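Blackboard transcription, Thursday session:
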Amino acid sequence: MTDWLPSLKTETPQQGFELAIMLARKGVAYTQPSAEIRKDLRPKYEADADSLTLASQVIAIHFQTVALANNHWK
Amino acid sequence: MTDWLPSLKTETPQQGFELAIMLARKGVAYTQPSAEIRKDLRPKYEADADSLTLASQVIAIHFQTVALANNHWK
Amino acid sequence: MTDWLPSLKTETPQQGFELAIMLARKGVAYTQPSAEIRKDLRPKYEADADSLTLASQVIAIHFQTVALANNHWK
Amino acid sequence: MTDWLPSLKTETPQQGFELAIMLARKGVAYTQPSAEIRKDLRPKYEADADSLTLASQVIAIHFQTVALANNHWK
Amino acid sequence: MTDWLPSLKTETPQQGFELAIMLARKGVAYTQPSAEIRKDLRPKYEADADSLTLASQVIAIHFQTVALANNHWK
Amino acid sequence: MTDWLPSLKTETPQQGFELAIMLARKGVAYTQPSAEIRKDLRPKYEADADSLTLASQVIAIHFQTVALANNHWK
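(Written on the board underneath:)
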């Protein structure tokens, strides 16, 4: 896999949140490397409230990490 | 997406809690960008105790981050 | 919503635990604002072991936050 | 409820682990105050592997808090 | 129960990981003290991917605690 | 088991993420030591969105630990 995570630093909290989203998706992509299969899973996944909440939870955990790495953008 | 997270700083703990709620919802909105689909999911979601607890959990994780960013409003 | 969280400070660890419980419930209440619907959900919820454990988990996450805000009452 | 949590301090890591267990159970007891109902739930609960793992998870979260409160018993 | 957790200190990260596994199992053992019942649960448990991931999650939470207690073996 | 975790230190954030993936898998492997059974579980597991999100969550927890051990590669 190419270099996709040079740093945890971001300029703004929002960019940090978007980095957290990318990290959550990378966790899925490393586990299921087929982009085609991941795409097939999206319709069911995106229409299930608990699946969405669970995805939001993983983002929340990564956002803790990214926020700490950026000293909470203080 | 427009600029929606300029800072993790809030004046009060309660505003911090409400920011945590917004972060939890943004995690869902980035994953399912259609406001219409998210609205369709609400009735079932809001009437299921475990779904609500799971939502509360994501808020709790974000509240840890926001509280730390605000030095726990000490 | 009226002012319900003036501070994360409590005098004792037990009061901190009770604050964590309130925070967990507030996370639910912001998501499902109808007190009536929440009340309807209680019987099923309170008689399901996994639902109770999940509720206990959210309390645990908030208690981490409250304990840290109080320097663990040292 | 009587005073049940005077401190997060324990003499040993093992006592800290046992305090974490108590905190996990208190989270359940505050949510379902009936000792009788909780007792009724135990047989099914204690014979389900995922229920046990979920209970172990709540203990793990509380143990993080207790360990930090005790400076990891260093 | 005999003394099983004299310290959170380990010599290596790997020993710390193995301590985290023991802590996760102890959380289960305190909740279901019967070794016989726990043994009966293993076959189903060990052949279910989500059960294994959930077990791995509890280990991950404890490993955070153990790693911090060891200053990340720096 | 042979020595598989000499250190939590990595040169880059991406290597840290990949270490977090290894830790998540080791948590499963210690619980289910049979590589054959784990392999049998993969097809169902890798085609279920929630299973993938749950795996991503465990990675996220470990990444918190690894990032902290590396001072977030600052």
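Lecturer's comment: Chain C has a mean pLDDT of 96.
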